[in-house]
Amino acid sequence: MHWFKLLSFGPSMNTGSFLQDLDPRSKLIFAATYLSLVTCSNDLVSMVFYAIAGFILVFTARLPLAYLWNGLKGLLPLLLSLFFYHMLLGDIKNAVILPCKLIFFIITAIVLSVTTTPTKLADGLEAIMRPLILIRFPVQNFVFMISVAFRFMPLFIDEADSMLKSQKVKHARYKSASFQTKIQSLLQFLVALFIAVLRRADQLALAMDARCYLPGNKIRASRLQFSWRDWMIIVSAMILLLIHILLKGAVFER
Asked: Which residue stretches, if any, does this entry annotate as coiled coil (predicted)?
């Protein structure tokens, strides 16, 4: 779990960037458009284009490269595994494209979490999903569930990391443990982690009940409003979509 703790998700910081004071809806629309286009792309030319777009995104967010590297270096084992696996299969194209896609996803998530507080992200997601109320979809409950899951992720990782460390200390004398002993140790860890998660959830439920929480009684400190900067971000997303269509047409013509 140590490698997962290196991911720089969750904490927001004031970088004084162009993206800092934008409406969260425009940032979510741009991120969804960018990541959807990255997912749909399967050629090297598109990967180069989205790499340039990702570099511009990081530069606009004024994100320190050291902070970005801390968010990416935890995924190096997975990236190298993907690369060498496809290289062994002789699929050089996917050996480059799949790690690039994963990097683009992580960079977008880091920029979004750094430039936007979790509360604003939840408000923006709720505003975007509000039309689903017409089909009786529980938008507020869904958004609350997502926001709580992201806020509790660091606590969950710390809990798992502390359990793994204590387990290593406990079984340090069994250097040459059998396969059955290792399986039993893994099962004990998973059961203990599941119980710890349930305990955290029960504590959260008691805290919400003590504060008389109701899903529909949410009061916002400020209203979400679009500015000219937000429209620039949305227009940029539309430009990305147009360039994607042009790139697809150029690839198919070949």
From this structure: none
* pLDDT tens figures, 18-73: 777 788 888 889 999 999 999 888 888 888 888 898 888 888 888 777 777 776 77
Q: CA-CA distance, 177 to 188, in Å (whole number)?
A: 15
DSSP string covering 120-180, please?
HHHHHHHHHHGGGGGGT--HHHHHHHHHHHHHHHHHHHHHHHHHHHHHHHHTTT-TT--HH
pLDDT at residue 222, as a whole number: 64
- The domain locations on the chain are 4-138+220-253, 151-214
Joined together, the tokens standing for residue 120 give 């604003």
Residue 154 tokens, joined: 């660091």
The percent of residues in the chain predicted with pLDDT above 90, rounded, is 2
SS (H, E, C) 25-60: HHHHHHHHHHHHHHHHCCCHHHHHHHHHHHHHHHHH
